[in-house]
Amino acid sequence: MTEFMDDQKTQTDQQQGPLIETTHDGAKVQEQADDGLLHLSIRAPEKTVFEGVIESMTSKNVKGTFDILPYHENFISLIIDKVTIREKDKPPKDIAVGNAILKISKNRVEIYIGMEATLGEEGSKAAVPPTTASPDQQPPKAAST
Fold first, then answer.
1. pTM exceeds cut of 0.85
2. Domains of the chain
């Protein structure tokens, strides 16, 4: 039984990378080392839709379609329609997201679907609208994806 548990732990360590000890705000913490893979989590309010390791993915926001590969620049975006995920040795898979929030940081992609905002006193719900800035308040341009 112990051998089985050790084998499972080794497989998990290989999938997520070894634990390394770092110092954050003076406290020592353990975190996963970079393994060069994308770890994707897609969550709806009531369940986890997908959790796993992928090779790449494609998504869409109001500016157009973009791809995410390992070592992608960190960012947050409102996304629409669907995401296409590519797992190793499997055909691409589309997952409908409607309106969602995508966050990528350190090869970890988190997508939160079913995002709605309550507007006004009536309590009516609407999809989260894209944000806009006036011409004199344009944010700096991000690296192209």
1. no
2. 35-118 (2.60.15.10)
